[in-house]
Amino acid sequence: EKNGKRTAVEIETGKSDAVYNIRKALEAGFDEVVIIAIDEKVKRELDEIVERNAGLLNGKSVKVLKNDFL
């Protein structure tokens, strides 16, 4: 939590139900979800999923990043 804003962080391999995980985090009261994709293919898939489900986000922020840490 920073400045009253709660952020959930998800690591996504492409094998889980990303929509369910995002929804679960938002329903738990997080203001933002940051998803770290393990590679570029998974990032592209997540970008499409987030775009297709924008109506479910209720104005909340979902950011998809590619893992550049490894």
Characterise the protein shown here.
- The chain is of the alpha/beta class and 70 residues long.
- It contains 2 helices and 3 strands, in the order βαβαβ.
- Strand 2, helix 2 (40-52) and strand 3 (61-66) form a beta-alpha-beta unit.
- The longest helix has 13 residues, at 40-52.
- The termini are far apart.
- The mean pLDDT is 89.
Concise synopsis of the structure shown:
By secondary structure, the protein is α/β, with parallel strands linked by helices. Helices cover 33% and strands 26% of the residues.
List the helices and strands and how they pair.
Blueprint: E1 7-12, H1 18-27, E2 32-37, H2 40-52, E3 61-66
Parallel strand pairs: 1-2, 2-3
Q: Strand portion, in percent?
A: 25-35%
Total E-strand runs:
3
Uncertain runs are none
* N/C terminus separation: 26 Å
Tally of DSSP helical segments: 2
Would you tell me the structural class of the helices and strands?
alpha/beta
Report the C-alpha radius of gyration, rounded: 12 Å
Shape: globular
Q: In order across it, which strands form the biggest sheet?
A: 1-2-3
Task: Give the ordered list of helices and strands.
Answer: EHEHE
Supply database-style keywords.
70 residues, alpha/beta, 3-stranded parallel sheet, 2 helices, 33% helix, 26% strand
